[in-house]
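hiii so um. not sure if this is the right channel but i have a protein structure encoded as tokens and i wanna go backwards to a sequence. like what aa goes where. can anyone help
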């Protein structure tokens, strides 16, 4: 019986099975959230295609609706009519549940001249400050103060923001997105130096330019935006989810299965493919948007350091660690983006992994096998790491804490079962 996806459900996995077949990857969660925020910039109706079906996406729809956006969803096609916004204040109870909603600050401020957005809560992986977002918007001429946990931003003299030269202390994805969106309707030119270069930034610039914005350099460390008066309707397709793509490739690698992942963008997963090659796991292109995993009976350990794009993505760190736990040799994983992103280590250790953590460094000694155990997902990407480990472990693994998984993976259990995984979702007891 597949339950209806309640938060306290569990996944029961019988490990050791070889997978086969093909899985179609959904649209990118971390792009779709930013693109949805970007529709606030538009005075007409926008349409997004390839929107994943996720808890976080449904939450973002609620937040936009509360601001007066008329949202209509038809499977993975979502229409947004932001022609008449009715509020500039995002509801606390919704924003506090999801950091990704903080991206509405920049577009709301530049479109309406004012925005009140609650501080996004920290989450299990770190404190998640927003100082770079705030300083960037202040540079664009906004008065920003934080009272009672709410960020209140106003364009000085209630008019348009003014373009500026901004240098980000660190290439923050969210700050780059908030500032870039705010600059699209500002007066004059904005330059963002040390900008994030993630594919999601390029996707967001693509939507804004489709709406008539003038953004150049997205995907490089210098983004230049010429402000315009208004943005018009657009119909735009969300890029494939590179993190989901990596998660399924790793599921094939750890179970030594030659599965195909389809509807992907190969250029977005280069760092992962390079690391897999280093340890002896290959791939072949089935088509420009489909890749077949070429597994290896045994593979080497290696060193991984998470870095801003085009470095190895922090969101793939925990699933990749599951693979390294069974390597024939030792590995060192260094997490440089977030201060607390090794919570999956304790759970992998319960399954027999040999991992020692010192600060932001995890030292892994490959073991010959993992054994199934009851484990708890502690954050979104850790849930994928535990499912992947469970696929390869001897015996039964029970994964709880699925509300994390449901935030960021579109029907993960259904897709894994489609590949032949012996995995079932049951109501929590
Ligand atoms: C985005 O978060 C993603 N979330 C994260 O994915 C991803 O891990 C992260 O980028 C890095 O790639 C969404 O896109 C919704 P950052 P974001 O700002 O924008 C520090 C997932 O699992 N920082 O690039 O919050 C921050 O503390 C999630 O899908 C500041 O110091 O990431 C962190 O150490 C997890 N001040 C580092 O920068 C700021 O103002 C990277 O954060 C902003 C960030």
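sure thing!! here u go:
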């Amino acid at each position: 019986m597949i339950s209806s996806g309640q938060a306290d459900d569990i996944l029961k996995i019988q490990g050791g099975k070889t997978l086969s077949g093909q899985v179609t990857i959904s649209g990118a969660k971390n792009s779709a959230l930013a693109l949805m925020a970007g529709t606030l910039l538009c005075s007409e109706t926008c349409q997004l295609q390839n929107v994943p079906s996720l808890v976080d996406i449904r939450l973002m729809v609620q937040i936009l609706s509360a601001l007066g956006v008329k949202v209509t969803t038809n499977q993975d096609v979502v229409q947004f009519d932001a022609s008449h916004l009715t509020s500039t204040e995002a509801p606390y109870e919704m924003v506090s549940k999801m950091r990704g909603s903080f991206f509405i600050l920049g577009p709301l401020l530049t479109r309406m001249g004012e925005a009140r957005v609650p501080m996004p809560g920290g989450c299990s992986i770190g404190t998640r400050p927003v100082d770079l977002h705030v300083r960037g918007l202040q540079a664009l001429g906004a008065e920003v103060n934080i009272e009672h946990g709410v960020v209140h931003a106003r364009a000085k003299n209630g008019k348009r923001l003014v373009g500026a030269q901004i240098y980000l202390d660190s290439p923050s994805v969210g700050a780059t997105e908030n500032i870039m969106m705010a600059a699209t309707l500002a007066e004059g030119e904005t330059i963002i130096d040390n900008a994030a270069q993630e594919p999601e930034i390029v996707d967001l610039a693509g939507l804004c330019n489709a709406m008539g914005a003038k953004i150049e350099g997205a995907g490089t460390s210098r983004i230049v935006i010429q402000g315009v008066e208004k943005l018009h309707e657009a119909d735009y397709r969300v890029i494939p989810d590179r993190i989901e793509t990596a998660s399924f490739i790793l599921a094939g690698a750890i179970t030594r299965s030659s599965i195909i992942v389809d509807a992907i963008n190969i250029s977005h997963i280069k760092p992962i493919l390079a690391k897999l090659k280093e340890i002896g796991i290959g791939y072949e292109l089935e088509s420009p948007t489909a890749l077949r995993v070429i597994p290896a009976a045994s593979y080497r350990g290696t060193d991984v350091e998470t870095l801003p794009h085009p470095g190895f993505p922090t969101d793939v760190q925990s699933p990749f660690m599951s693979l390294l736990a069974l390597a024939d040799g030792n590995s060192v994983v260094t997490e440089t983006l977030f201060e607390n992103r090794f919570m999956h280590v304790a759970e992998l250790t319960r399954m027999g992994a040999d991992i020692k953590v010192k600060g932001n460094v995890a030292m892994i000694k490959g073991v010959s096998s993992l054994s199934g155990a009851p484990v708890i997902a502690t954050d979104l990407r850790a849930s994928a790491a535990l499912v992947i480990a469970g696929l390869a472990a001897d015996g039964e693994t029970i994964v709880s804490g699925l509300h994390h998984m449901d935030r960021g993976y579109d029907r993960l259990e259904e897709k894994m079962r489609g590949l032949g995984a012996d995995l079932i979702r049951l109501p929590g007891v």
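oh and The first helix runs from residue 29 to 38.
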